[in-house]
Amino acid sequence: MRPHEFEPGAASDAVIAIEGLTKTYKSGFQALKSVDLTIRRGEIFALLGPNGAGKTTLISVVCGIVNPTSGRVRVNGHDILTDYRAARAQIGLVPQELTTDAFETVWNTVSFSRGLFGKSSNPAHIERVLKDLSLWEKRDNRMMTLSGGMKRRVLIAKALSHEPQVLFLDEPTAGVDVELRQDMWRLVRALRDTGVTIILTTHYIEEAEEMADRVGVISKGEIILVEDKAELMRKLGRKQLTLQLQAALPAVPASLGAYDLQLAAEGTELTYTYDTKAERTGITSLLRDLSEAGIRFRDLRTRQSSLEEIFVGLLKEQA
């Protein structure tokens, strides 16, 4: 069984269970192709993929915005089609688009969103959410007077207004300033600590690397990989050893050709890339062969490949 397939025995640990999900539009375009995915209760799950890969379609189906062609989605045990209201009440969604009622105040906008889910009035909760998002001072402002960053904060407040167990963040930091981005991630971590499950899509892959517990990669409507982030970095990551040479080299000697070394910094740096999971890294033999070739170095450093580099490599394999 592939790591992203649905496991019936894991149901108690699953807040979202997706089985055989497909979506084909009237044009014939198949946006999702038999997606199986289990998202665990209380985790931060990053869904990565290029534009058009199916990220937003998948989120839209789970949130009940788009009807699937086939397959099944359950949220906290509630089927998204046959038990829509109960399933949707579990979910908060922060969409990409900044769509709000321009003439309403921040307070009314967020309070109204809570009421849509049949929740009784709870001013204390609304106040807490607005304060957490640095919106309290803007509570009486009309939406039309807010900056783009502040409107983004209001969208998050709306999504949290009915105290959901699952929060979808679809490109939440696109076009926002660094301060909001940091505020948002602080809030996300705090929510996760209270048991809320966070699913995010982002173009800033370094954010996924910093925030996520697990990572899923979607390409051409298919989930091609789901893995714990740390395990993914260990299994697919590569390391680079960079040697700072005592004297510049005009070219890599032929005797070192087997190592596929890269010469940089006007011949003063040699970089060797190796597989972190291989039995032998080749570093010992490289250093020996460098010495035999009369090449001396004064310093060395290593660098682990980033999640972004792993992601790009996976997509190249799928091309």
Automatic annotation (TrEMBL):
SMART domains: AAA. The keyword Nucleotide-binding applies. It comes from the Bacteria. The keyword Nucleotide-binding applies. It holds the Pfam family ABC_tran. Keywords: ATP-binding, Nucleotide-binding, Transport. One of its GO terms (molecular function) is ATP binding. Residues 16-245 form the ABC transporter domain. Belongs to the ABC transporter superfamily. This is ABC transporter ATP-binding protein.
